[in-house]
Amino acid sequence: MTEEARKEAAAVRVRGLWKRFGDQVAVAGIDLDLPAGRFIGLVGPNGAGKTTTLSMVTGLLRPDQGTVEVVGHDVWQDPVQVKARIGVLPEGLRLFERLSGRELLAYTGRLRGLPGAEVDKRTTQLLDVLDLSGSQHKLVVDYSTGMRKKIGLAAALLHNPEILFLDEPFEGVDPVSAQTIRGVLERYTASGATVVFSSHVMELVESLCDWVAVLAAGRIRAHGPLTEVRGNAPSLQQAFLQLVGAQARTSHSDLDWLGGTPR
C-alpha cells in the first residue's frame, strides 16, 4: 500500500456503538471513521462519553451494541491482532507500582514478546527521551503524576504500535513533562503513525491535532479535518461551544452575594 493510500485508509471504523450504564446512556449509536496517519483529537465536555468510547474502541469495555475495527481487525472477534497493533494510555492509569521504571518497561516488553536485547535498547532510549533516566531505578509508587504519565507512555510505545490511544494524557501534568510528552507524540506521528487522544482542552487540541471529532451527550456532533470543524469560528473553542449548544450566561444576578461583605 502506498503512503498516500495508507493515509486515506481508516485506522479505526466504528459502527452503531452503544453503551448504557443502567438508565444512563453513555454512548448513543456512534458511527465514525478515524483516518490513519493523523493526530486525532476526540473532544467533548466532561461526561460526553469520551472515556467510554475509547475504552470500547481499545477492547477495555464491551459495547452493548455495535462493532469496532482497528486496522481492519474486529476488536472483539480478533483481540490478539488488535492489541498487538495498538498502544493505550488510559485514564486513571494503573501500573505495577512496586517495580522500578526500568523494570516496568522490561516486564512490558517481555509480555509483548520482544527479544530481551531489543527491550533493553528501546527501554534505554525511551527513558532518555522522556527524561526518566535519572529515575529509572526508583519505584513507580514514588513517581509524580507527570512521571507516571511518561512511564505509561513509554510502556504504550515500547512495541512500536500502529495506533496510540491516549485518554487525557496531559491531565495533571506539569508544563515541562507536558512539553516532553508533546515532543514524543509529534515525532511518533511524523513517522506515519496514528494518535487518538481525548481532551476537553480545546487550545491543546487545536495546537496538536489536524483532525477532530466532537462528542457531546454520547453522540458525534462533528468530525473531520480541524479546519473544517472549526469553520468560520475564530477558534476551535468557539466552534466547540456552538456545536455542543453551550449558552453563555449574560446575567449573574443570582450570585449578587458573591464577593460582597460576608454575612
Describe this structure in words.
Residues 1-7 have low confidence and may be disordered. The strands form two sheets. Strands 6-7-8-3-9-10 form a six-stranded mixed sheet, with helices on both faces. The protein has a four-stranded antiparallel sheet with strand order 2-1-4-5. It has a single domain, classed as Rossmann fold (3-Layer(aba) Sandwich), CATH 3.40.50.300. The protein is an alpha/beta fold and 263 residues long. Helices cover 36% and strands 25% of the residues. The protein has helices at residues 3-8, 50-57, 79-85, 101-111, 116-129, 145-157, 175-190, 202-208, 226-230, 236-243; strands at residues 10-21, 24-35, 39-43, 65-70, 73-74, 86-89, 163-167, 194-199, 211-216, 219-225.
Q: Which labels suit this protein?
A:
alpha/beta, Rossmann fold, four-stranded antiparallel sheet, 10 helices
